[in-house]
Amino acid sequence: MHSLLLCSSLVGLASAAELEKRHGGFSVYEMLNDDLARLSLMVLGLMAAFIYVWKMWHRLASHMRRLASFTNERQRYFVSPHGMLAKINNYIIYAPLFRTRHNREFQLSRAVNMGTLPSRFHSFLLVGIVAMNIVLCVVTVPYGSSETTVAGLIRNRTGTMATVNLIPVVLMAGRNNPLITLLQVPFDTFNLIHRWLARIVVLQSLAHVFAWAIPKAQKSGWDVIGMVFGESSFMLNGLIAACAFTALLVHSPSPIRHAFYETFLHLHMVLVALSFGFLWLHLDGMVSQNYLLVAVIFWALERAARIFIILYRNCGRESTTAHIEALPGDAMRITLKMTRPWAFHPGQHIYLYIPSVGWWMSHPFSVGWSEAEEFPAGEKGIPMTQQDLVSLKKTTISLLVRRRTGFTDKLFQRAQKSTGGRVSLRAFAEGPYGSIHTMDSYGTVMLFAGGVGITHQVPFVRHLVKGFAEGTVAARRVTLVWIIQSPEHLEWIRPWMTSILAMDRRREVLRIMLFITRPRNTKEIQSPSATVQMFPGRPNVDTLVGLEVENQIGAMGVLVCGNGSLSDDVRRVCRKKQDQTQVDFIEESFTW
User: Fold this and answer.
1) Which stretches of 246-362 are assigned E, i.e. beta strand?
2) What DSSP string runs through 40-106?
3) Which of 213, 270, 298, 454 is the most exposed place for a label (fewest CB within 10 A)?
């Protein structure tokens, strides 16, 4: 990438020099601004194309592996690691930035969350994006010219780059980002890039302002700067837009986002609208206004898609209703009776709106269970249309939610204060989103869950056990490891687990291991059967994964959904096994 940028810079310098001879002014350098801006989009597009090819190769290999398992019970060929791929996974894809810490958050206190470190691969990606923007902002500038000339060129260049970067910033912030499905890259990765690109936009905007203001002040004094802003609406609009962008940067650090999320979100939307509005006025009649228009169109399409999904999913002859039940351990089981039938896949999540609790707030929750129910027709013997048949099918969605602060705290209190610890409220569900990972091609599957992270794993257990009985998946060994603090937390998923334990051929494929970290006494720790076992304390992840490796069938997939410490521990062990056997590590997390 750096070689490409260097070559383009040299070509740009040569062409600019030639144009300067023909046209006799430094304004010809401005002709390169749009070319370099488009080059930045092209580089991002090439990166996306590379990831697409990489992911397609993985999907094809997984599909062929699943097909091969139908005629090969032991799947021995897929146990051996692939040398080069194993090294790439160990040192780049799965590797934290430093040592073993990646998803475990840095906390100054329980209320002050400093966020997490990016992975090594993400760090390489971000460094490349930052370097590209620095290079494109400074190449082709004739540094031997006067300070005023150099400042003017950098001013125009940084302004153009800041505007063009708004396109990927907006695209990567959306829940309905088409690249999530196309590239099979999770939303939290795009959200990470969104945050860093947004920081680059702010810095480029400030460079744009100061590259104009400093030479002006040196020549005429700072009093003139104030007079210009007072007399020129063009300059004032640009200043307000830059101030709004700066405010977005100031109020977006991780501690503020986590401690005051709802306030952050509302203020974020107001500041974005303010910055875009005044930037539009500032760019009136300029070519760069087209870049802003593209960003606004992307934003409008994403919002329109969300509104359509919400209305389609929740509005019909009946409305969506949420039945909230307070559970032991500050948890809630939310059962949604949907207006229309849905088709869910393991690993998907929805965004839940409950207007009576938080008017326009939505929060992501993994779908722990879903069922399609058929309701009898009102009268027998009357011919029914296809639409009538669909209307008689209802989807029930179940979520498991841990009480935190804000929205979940208010919701828990509403349920707890109601008769029987249950309350029914009008709700809206948006989605489903996610499900970019499939475990169907792995002969051996390990699912680690911590606390309410079990909601992400239960659908995989259900799907794999059913697929094993029907012969549609490669899985021959499925192990669920769930870490909870108290035995009473088992009530969270009791109805779901009862259904799974009654599934056909479940004992042949599924083993469940429950670890109770804070048991009141040892009598509470009793294993119901050989395939469902309970243990006191925390699991030794290294030992558990090692036991599965010794009895491994086919390729092994390890999926974890829990707190940062658990995820990092499982990641560390899977990296150690890369040169021994075929082990894929998959992490599910909502990081933002």
Assistant:
1) 321-327, 331-337, 348-353
2) HHHHHHHHHHHHHHHHHHHHHHHHHHHHHHTT-SS-GGGTS--HHHHHHIIIIIS-BSBTTBSSSPP
3) 270
Per-residue pLDDT of the chain in tens (592 residues, 90 and over written 9)? 444 444 444 444 444 444 444 333 445 666 789 899 999 999 999 999 999 999 999 999 999 999 999 988 889 999 999 889 999 999 999 999 988 887 777 666 665 667 788 999 999 999 999 999 999 999 988 888 888 889 999 999 999 999 999 999 999 999 999 999 999 999 999 999 999 999 999 999 999 999 999 998 888 888 888 899 888 999 999 999 999 999 999 998 888 887 788 788 889 999 999 999 999 999 998 989 999 999 999 999 999 999 999 999 999 888 999 999 999 999 999 999 999 888 899 999 999 999 999 877 888 999 999 998 765 544 444 445 544 544 456 789 999 999 988 889 999 999 999 988 999 999 999 999 988 899 999 999 999 999 999 999 999 999 999 999 999 999 999 999 999 999 999 999 999 999 999 999 999 999 999 999 988 887 778 888 889 999 999 999 999 999 999 999 999 999 999 998 999 999 999 999 999 999 999 999 765 5
Q: For the chain, give every domain's residue range.
A: 2-42+78-93+119-307, 317-374+389-434, 444-587
Give the DSSP letter of residue 140: T
DSSP string, 509-543: HEEEEEEESS-SSGGG---SSSSEEEEES---HHH
- What single-letter amino acid sits at 549? V
CATH 2.60.40.1470 is held by the domain 317-374+389-434? no
**What is the 3-state secondary structure of 222-274?**
HHHHHHHHHHCHHHHHHHHHHHHHHHHHHCCCHHHHHHCHHHHHHHHHHHHHH
Closest C-alpha among 351, 266, 273, 348 to residue 306: 351
For 219-243, letters b (16+ CB in 10 Å) and e give eeeeeebeebbeeeeebbbbbbbbb
What is the value of pTM for the model shown? 0.89
Beta-carbon neighbour count of residue 67 at 10 Å? 12
Q: In what helix (H) or strand (E) does residue 363 lie, and over which residues does it extend?
A: strand 363-374
Q: Is the dihedral of CA 41, 46, 47, 52 positive or negative?
A: positive
The correct answer on CATH 3.40.50.720 for the domain covering 444-587 is: no
Using the structure block, give the residue that is written with the tokens 């969300």: 306
> 367 has which bridge partners?
399
- DSSP H/E element including 290: helix 289-314
Closest listed residue to residue 205, CA positions, set 173, 169, 157, 264: 157
Q: Please state the φ and ψ torsions of residue 427, each to the nearest 5 degrees.
A: -145, 165
**Nearest-angstrom CA–CA distance, 592 and 590:** 7
- The Cα–Cα gap between 346 and 439 comes to 9
Among 429, 584, 396, smallest CA distance to 499 is for 396
Q: Tell the residue number behind the tokens 């779908």, with chain if given.
A: 367
